[in-house]
Write a structure and sequence with these properties.
single chain; alpha+beta; Aminopeptidase; N-acyl amino acid synthase, PEP-CTERM/exosortase system-associated; Acyl_CoA_acyltransferase
Amino acid sequence: MDVRAGGYRVRLVSGDEAGAAFALRARLFRDGRDDSDAFDADARHLLVERDGLAACARLSVLEGDAILAGYTGNRYDLTRFAARFDRALEVGRICLLPEAADPDLARVMLGAIAHVATATGAAALFGCASFPPNGAGTERLGGYVAPPEWRPGRRDGAVPLPGVPGPLPPMLRGYLTFGAAVSDHAVRDDDLDTLHVFTALPVATIPTARARRLTQLLHPA
């Protein structure tokens, strides 16, 4: 994929071409220290660029047991999720450049991710949505808990949703407006000093009109 959207260039690259993404991740997640891990090599990396990198994400199309063995599957029991959605797009390490200050940037990211999901035949998008360590913003998640049929089970590190007031992360806010659901618990990530929740968006729940508007954002580069 190499397209234009809202004045941005949007493309997918391999790990060998994702140096700018790794640098942004290092800056935002680890105060400049290396953030690469074992999941990067087999993933594709989404780059959104305008006068340099404005946003990035790691995308992995997973099937069956690979869903259970992925980054998110190591933190949540996804047995029921994988049984319901046997091919899914794992979205992780989302970074939006803070100084970009563009409300359309999250929308461009959503459009690009939705395009990849459709193009790869994924039945759902999923990943971990990060919050501050105190859980600020989780108060807003009460009405979005996933149905029992595919809700993730708990692994070590699981804690109740704190229910602390605060804003939602921009990408999660977008996911929820398209029909996403979250876990009924959170997980503390001591490595990144965050609290995160499982988030999934079944492709079939995305309203047709909204999906059309998202895909219309993208034009050949």
